[in-house]
Amino acid sequence: MKKKDMISASILAAAETLFQKWGIRKTTMEDIAQEAGKAKSSLYYYFKDKEAVLEAVATAQAERIIRIVREEVEKKKTAREKLLTYVYTSFRETRRAITLYEIARGEMRATPGVLRKVIDKYHALEEEAVEEILRFGKKRKEFRIIGRHDISDTSQAIVTIMRSLIISLFIESDDKKTIDQIIALLSEGL
Amino acid sequence: MKKKDMISASILAAAETLFQKWGIRKTTMEDIAQEAGKAKSSLYYYFKDKEAVLEAVATAQAERIIRIVREEVEKKKTAREKLLTYVYTSFRETRRAITLYEIARGEMRATPGVLRKVIDKYHALEEEAVEEILRFGKKRKEFRIIGRHDISDTSQAIVTIMRSLIISLFIESDDKKTIDQIIALLSEGL
DNA sequence: TTTCGACCAATATTGTATTTTGGTCGAAAT
DNA sequence: ATTTCGACCAAAATACAATATTGGTCGAAA
Questions:
Q1: pLDDT of amino acid B168
Q2: Nucleic chain C: which protein residues 29-68 of B have CB below 7 A from it?
């Protein structure tokens, strides 16, 4: 049981490397096998098909992002700082994870199905993380409005904004000043 | 001088109809000419090339959206209502103007250049409109923060959010509740 | 339990013939 | 002088067939 996991992991590592380098579509099972030092047919002993490999890589990346973001957020004292850090770190790490980035925009149309599941789960985790920050801000009485509005709806709105921004700011330039301004708007209101 | 403008307009009308129906790329100059009841080569008497036709159509649509949005916004009394109306109307009309919508996402990569100009100008007009609302809200003392922050930066941030939302909400479902929540966030803060 | 070569159907790629398209020009019509 | 259009061309898009890759299976070997 231990050995199988090790090799699975090495295959995933190989796949992730190649996905980053050439993109999902241009990476073949043969490529992955070669990078992992295996025969192509051996991969099918560890993963059902290419989609399964993709799902595993995407899941691992999503979990990695969530973990890093939570670590960074935890270091900050105020809810406002936490929210700011959350957005920045999430941006940076999402961009770094090209696979997810590709998924988030164009290439997803070419590879739907399984990835929808991964992304939905990822967004759910994101909402949880934001909710935590909001609850923290409420406890500290840093945020005024949250008593009146549902905390879950609010974090959903914030994640929606973020998701949209990530998609479009990937295309355009990532204007740091604009992001700061948006955070200020969110936390202080007009 | 009058007749030339009339025919120009009829060509643009034909072009717009076909752009909506078949998309920019699938609409040929021959199609437009036929729809306008002219010979293809006649179009070149009125417009330099296909790009010029496209630019004129896009500009007209942008101006139309701005006009409608301003009309709707003017009817509202409070700055908050104005802002809400602005977002809703802008969403609705942008979606209705499929040409601009196509431009806003995928197809723009296939038709850059001239359209970049039109869109930039359109965004500038949008920012102006939002700025007006913000100034109005400041005068009524409806918005607190605006003294401290630059009003131009703030409206730029709002337009950025809106633009992102439009792009991504076009793809996903346009959850009205989410938009309401976002507006609440913007106007009240956390 | 794990690996892999041989093999296959389906997909993707490539090279080429053919058509379509954007755009020009000069002659005719108004 | 203004406006229209058919004939024409080079470049781009399309269609199609030949070819090569790719994802995936299977049974035999390690």
A1: 64
A2: 29-30, 40-41, 44, 48-51
Q: pLDDT under 50 in chain B at which residues? A: none
Same domain flag for A170 and A91? yes
pLDDT score recorded for residue A49:
93
- Determine the structural domain holding residue A5 and report its residue range: 1-47
Task: Report pLDDT digits (tens) over B41-67.
Answer: 999 999 999 999 999 998 998 899 999
Determine the protein residue whose CA lies at the shortest distance from the C1' of C21: B28
Shortest Cα distance from A80 to chain B (angstroms)?
Answer: 10
Residue A161's pLDDT is 81
Distance between the alpha carbon (CA) of A154 and the C1' atom of D11, Å: 54
Give the H/E segment covering residue A118.
Answer: helix A114-139
Same domain membership, residue B126 and residue B102: yes
Q: Would residue A81 be called left, alpha or beta, if left means φ above 0 and alpha means ψ between -120 and 50 degrees?
A: alpha
Helices and strands of chain B, counted as H and E runs? 9, 0
- Match 């190989």 to its residue by tokens: A14
Are A123 and A143 within one domain?
A: yes
The whole-number Å distance from B84's CA to C30's C1' is 54
C-beta separation of A43 from A7 below 8 A: no
What is the rounded CA–CA span in Å between residue A101 and residue A108? Answer: 9
The string of pLDDT tens digits covering residues A32-59 is 999 999 999 999 999 999 999 998 998 9
Q: Which of A149, A154, A178 sits opposite B157 (nearest CB)?
A: A178
State the nearest Cα–Cα gap between A190 and chain B, in angstroms.
Answer: 5
